[in-house]
Amino acid sequence: MTDYKLNNLNLSKLEKQVSIPKYNRSNIKTGIVHVGIGGFHRAHQAYYTDKLLSDESIKDWGICGVALLDFDTKIYNVLKEQDGLYTLVVKELDGTLTKSIIGAITEYMFAPENPMQVIEKMASPEVKIISLTITEGGYNYNEATKTFNFENPLIQHDLKNPQAPKTIFGYLTQAFKLRKERGLLGCTVQSCDNVQGNGHVAKEMILSYVKAVEPELVSWIEANVSFPNSMVDRITPATSPSDITGLLETSGIDDVWPVVCEPFHQWVIEDDFIAGRPAWETVGAQFVKDVVPYEKMKLSLLNAGHSVLGILGALIGYSTIDEAANNPEISAFLKSFMDKEVTPILGNLEGVNLEKYKESLLQRFGNIYIKDQIDRICSESSAKFPIFVLPTVNAQLKQNGPIEYAAFVVAAWAIYSLGVNETGDELVVKDAMKTILNEKAIASKENPKAFLEIESVFGKIKDSAEFVDIYTNSYNNIVEHGVEKCVMEMYNKD
Ligand code: CS2
């Protein structure tokens, strides 16, 4: 089989091997600027948009992908070399691979190289939506103070260098300023991150920043920018070297960075787009009035479920999520956590069969073909726990409900933060707060409560005697008996 480098020129030659964009990409105008062109965006929003563009009458919704951080230089270079094209490899439940080339990213920019180019693009009249996957930590929210974190050095940089910002807050401020000065219409900021009330949080954090730097812009934003909430879902592991070579060997596609993902995908969006939007509902997205209950369900079951499997699995010595999910002890623990602690706090979810949803999650986690990396799941846990796990604890504490399972996972995370698993192997801890997590983890060997003192993660949880008690017991039990034995005893007792 001849190998073809993935780019515009070779696209038609690949038609026999895989599905390729069915539209003329050079005719598509940019209607969306997307910040954060990692695997998830490319498996989700860009995938939906590519499907939409197959209707050749739709020409206004191409995506300009923005790589915001220095660290994103690789994806920018790949997209540039491949004319924005990449292969999406869906790993089906029976192990077959469905491959398609996605063409929705028609422009790409590297912000650190040319910040003004990005600001101009965000302010351009044809752009109606600025969407974001900037990760949970990207919203710069401090759990302890419940406010915007002005101490972040990158924010300090933006305050001093408004024309050459580094954070999304600096970019959006400049783009809104230009729109206002030029008398242009506003636009929608659409968060696609795993944050409860992601639109609300995006709005609150952006306005906090703008209030400090351009207070006269606040009322313009309030009147001209909308911030719909959305629930996004598709498990997208990091691409492995064998995904890349496998694609080349089986299809002759020389793609430096394909994206692999599960077949399941869901997107529930609040219909609040001030400058118009693509008809994503025609390709499977759901538009609803209030997305908050769906988000809560997904974050506290799926994402928290991931953290449970990730942290416990890492301590046992597993490297992929399916290994943890297919360990009967761990999966029974997860099921109890979901049923006993999460389900009671979800309230009424009209039209959702929660039992089926939970069942489907266990099946998705257990998919042996996905091989989602435990390292990926455990990375940035300091930004994930406050959104995925701790709201369940706080809600249960308020109603004197059960917290055993969640407290156990927090204790396991404290031990994980020592950086060694139960067989003595080193763990790759990737976390913006790695140093403090490790310091507190070491102090926790003497007094487990030390870990809970990180207020920007745990807020006031350390003040709950009940939580501290159960957490400390779990901590000591894990140290003494190991995760698997404790887990077995816990659900046998129930
Ligand atoms: C994961 C998510 O990062 C994580 O911890 O839980 O990336 C998860 O795979 C996606 O939200 C699935 O929709």
Automatic annotation (TrEMBL):
Keyword Oxidoreductase in record: yes
Family matches, as SUPFAM superfamilies: 6-phosphogluconate dehydrogenase C-terminal domain-like, NAD(P)-binding Rossmann-fold domains
Parts of the chain that traverse the membrane: none
Keywords: NAD, Oxidoreductase
Mannitol dehydrogenase C-terminal domain mapped to chain residues: 290-478
Domain Mannitol dehydrogenase N-terminal per the UniProt entry, residue ranges: 31-281
Organism superkingdom: Bacteria
Protein name, per record: Mannitol dehydrogenase family protein
Species classification: Bacteria, Pseudomonadati, Bacteroidota, Flavobacteriia, Flavobacteriales
